[in-house]
Amino acid sequence: MAYYPIFLELKDRRCLVVGGGRIAQRKIEGLLAAGASVTVIAPTLTKELQRLLAAGEIDCQQREYAESDIKDYEMCMVATDDGAVNAQVFAEGRSHGVWVNASDDPINCDFILPAVIRRGSITIAASTGGTSPALARRLREELEAYLTEEMPALADLLAEVRRDLHSRGITPDQEVWQEAIDEELRVLLAQRKYRQAKTRLLKALGAGELVEELVGVASEAGA
Question: Can you give the pTM of this predicted structure?
């Protein structure tokens, strides 16, 4: 089966999680990190989920899933060991137009969850289409090694400079951007020399005349 990879905006979206064990906890933590509004239906909860409930970070109905519980939500994740529950929730999700993911049960899924690495504003997802969780984990580990310490700072710098230039009507083409993101730029960021890195980037993008304005130092600084 071919899947279409996307990143969803879940801030304040109503998400249902069926199950209160460790797998459900991991899913809930991911949903909360994305800003979702999470309700849990489960007869028992892990200690961490009990803490989240007490802190008001999640809502919970401590009981078994019942017919049509899914209807008021926009997304549902099922984390139980009961295939019948998976199938019921999936069928009701289709009926009510709610996307459903059931752990380790691709037949009862509208979408699957990739292995995810987050570093600041950078998010990388890897998937094997649900065929090999072990390989997905291996890919995640290798990608984690690739995302070195300066990468989040690099993402922040590129976003900042892009906004600065865009506000002045300057739009370097993609090839210029690619050439500007060189090893020396990454070294400066790894050394926490942010101003020098920004100066270098602006010059590489053909905006050297804006260094003093945008960096706040003399144009020759960091050269």
Answer: 0.73
Residues 90 and 26 in one domain: yes
Please report, for the domain that includes residue 134, its CATH number.
3.30.160
Asked if 46 and 54 count as a contact pair (C-beta separation under 8 A), the reply is no
Q: What is the pLDDT of residues 53-98, one digit of tens each?
A: 999 999 999 999 999 999 999 999 999 989 999 999 999 999 999 9
Question: Per-residue pLDDT tens for 195-213?
Answer: 999 999 999 999 989 898 8
What is the residue range of 132's domain? Answer: 114-147
Distance from C-alpha of 214 to C-alpha of 221, rounded to nearest angstrom = 12
What b/e readout covers 31-62, taking b as 16+ CB neighbours within 10 angstroms?
A: bbebebbbbbbbeebbeebeebbeeeebebee
- Pairwise CA distance, residues 209 & 223, whole Å: 13
CATH code, domain carrying 106? 3.40.50.720
Domain total for the chain?
A: 3
Beta-strand (E) ranges in 79-160? 99-102, 115-119, 122-126
